[in-house]
Specification:
The structure is a homodimer of 217-residue chains.
Chain A: H1 18-41, H2 44-51, H3 55-61, H4 65-76, H5 89-105, H6 107-118, H7 123-135, H8 140-150, H9 160-177, H10 184-196, H11 203-216
Chain B binds a DNA duplex (30 and 30 nucleotides) through residues 3, 7, 9, 11-12, 15, 17-19, 22, 43-45, 53-57, 59-60.
DNA sequence: CGGACATTGCAACTTTGAGTTGCAATCACT
DNA sequence: AGTGATTGCAACTCAAAGTTGCAATGTCCG
């Protein structure tokens, strides 16, 4: 008997009655609320009201606020998209930064960052938020930089995490502190800054350096 | 409301009774509490208990939590230190970043950032937090960069705020997301990254660019 | 010194909002 | 149709914020 599920009977022994829609609605609203008012101000009665359901029903499924939020975040971060790489470092970094920016500006991302910053305690929640945060950009970025470094495209003494976190920090500052949009233009500016440096046009100095090293050997 | 201080006697018309010490204690504790539990979880009864005073007394002076926090922040950001500049851009930027990092890691700074990120609404509070944030580094940094740009030390198309906010964002990420210390080493790394760029050693490409621009037209 | 004024503390009260429980209504699936 | 599970509803408990009247204490000034 084809049992992809848990029960042997072919008919749905795991009935997804109105319950499934219920769960989805509540988790959705929880995320929204999380982004809007933050973790601390989020309350189950509020979520219930906004979701158009009764508090009691929520309390019965998720005993506490923490559990509810955990499940909401869990459900929200299932879709980890692979990061397509073109081989051009600048292009790839911009694409990556766009992914991160998109995440930061989404309800989920906002919620996650708020938890990360405000919930210094609550190790369980922090862990989950960290997971969600890391999930948005996985390990791929590090591979990206390792390759670039192997190609000699970036300096060997540049720390990959410093570079990535600087970009991420710039985006966070843009979105949350300045409360501005992280446009493609802005993202490109940041990436270019970090890649080429602010002093990129001091050609004389660079040439000098080159000649010196060329003549030295 | 302002106390009726207009007395006929020329002596201390602004009496500082036990009230002054009271105010200072409460504001101090408020700041501490703000950094410890954040704005949302902060409650006047808690502050009262921690300050060893009665809630009622606090309620009478500051009607709401918002007012109390506003005054606490106001009192905390009086000392704006001038930024000494040496003329060397890298040195000055590192010094500046250290000031910012120091602020971010202080109770006041933590509180301010938490408010900035969590209190997207509350325009009044946000405004004050912004003021406190900006206060940590005033306009001096912009002058710094303007001078460097005038000297041709940095590229003319580099946006000053992008550069500064990228550094600030990197520090915020370090302190709040990674929850690590912003050491001098790390700060120098970030500043160097932003100034020189990750691709600083790709001499061939830079030379190529130079030759092209030299031979072209 | 002493009396008026202001400030703080104290205790009891009201209010608000989270969380709980028993029961009726509803839906799903046999 | 009937049975079991799920949701809604209404009334409750409980904790903590905020309020008020009054007593106690300190300060100022004649």
């Amino acid at each position: 008997m084809p049992a992809p599920k848990k029960k042997s009977s072919p008919h749905a022994t795991e009935p997804k009655p109105r319950g499934e829609a219920f769960v989805q609605t509540v988790l959705q609203v929880t995320l929204q609320q999380l982004a809007d008012v933050g973790f601390e101000k989020l309350s189950i009665p509020d979520v219930a009201a906004r979701a158009g359901v009764n508090r009691t029903s929520i309390y019965r499924r998720w005993r506490t606020k923490e559990v509810l939020v955990r499940h909401a975040l869990d459900a929200a971060m299932d879709h980890s998209e692979g990061l397509a790489t073109t081989g051009d470092l600048r292009t790839d970094l911009i694409a990556l930064a766009q992914t991160v920016a998109h995440f930061l500006q989404s309800p989920t991302g906002t919620a996650v960052v708020r938890i990360l910053l405000a919930e210094g305690s609550n190790p369980e929640l922090r862990l989950l938020a960290n997971k969600a945060y890391g999930n948005a950009s996985d390990r791929a970025p590090f591979a990206l930089l390792a390759q670039a470094k192997a190609r000699g495209e970036i300096a060997p003494d540049v720390d990959a995490s410093t570079l990535l976190f600087t970009i991420a920090g710039a985006l966070m500052h843009r979105v949350f502190v300045e409360q501005g949009r992280a446009t493609v233009t802005y993202i490109a500016q940041v990436v270019d800054l970090v890649l080429k440096g602010a002093t990129r046009y001091a050609k004389e100095e660079l040439l000098e350096t080159h000649y010196r090293s060329a003549h030295a050997s």
